[in-house]
C-alpha cells in the first residue's frame, strides 16, 4: 500500500512535535496506516531533502532600513 500525502505529513508533524519514531508509527496505526518506525524515518529524510532544496531557492525580500 502506498501512503497518501496526508499520512506522510501527519507522521512528519508528529515527529517534529517531539514524538519518537516508534510513537509516530503507533499513532499512524491508529489512523489506519500500517508503517514501521523505519518507514517514518525514511519519509522524514526524503522530505527534509526536498524542503532544503526548496528553501535554498527562496531569497528574502528585505528593506535597507
Write the layout of secondary structure elements.
Elements: H1 5-16, H2 21-30, H3 37-56
Helix pairs in contact: 1-2, 2-3
Task: Summarize the structure in short.
The protein has 65 residues and is mostly helical.
CA-based gyration radius: 15 Å
Q: What is the string of helix and strand elements?
A: HHH
Helix-strand makeup class = mainly alpha
Number of helices: 3
Report the mean per-residue pLDDT as an integer.
89
Number of domains: 1
Helix content: 55-70%
Uncertain stretches: none
Total E-strand runs = 0
C-alpha geometry: elongated
Strand content: under 5%
Distance between the termini: 53 Å
* Largest sheet composition: none
Describe the structure.
The protein is mainly α and 65 residues long. It has one domain. 65% of the residues lie in helices and 0% in strands. α1 crosses α2 (21-30). The protein is elongated. The mean pLDDT is 89.
Throw out a few tags for this protein.
65 residues; mainly alpha
Amino acid at each position: 500500500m502506498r501512503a497518501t500525502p496526508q499520512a506522510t505529513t501527519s507522521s512528519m508533524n508528529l515527529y517534529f512535535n517531539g514524538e519518537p519514531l516508534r510513537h509516530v508509527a503507533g499513532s499512524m496505526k491508529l489512523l489506519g496506516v500500517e508503517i514501521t518506525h523505519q518507514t517514518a524515518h525514511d519519509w522524514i529524510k526524503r522530505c527534509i531533502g526536498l524542503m532544503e532544496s526548496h528553501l535554498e531557492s527562496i531569497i528574502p525580500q528585505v528593506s535597507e532600513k
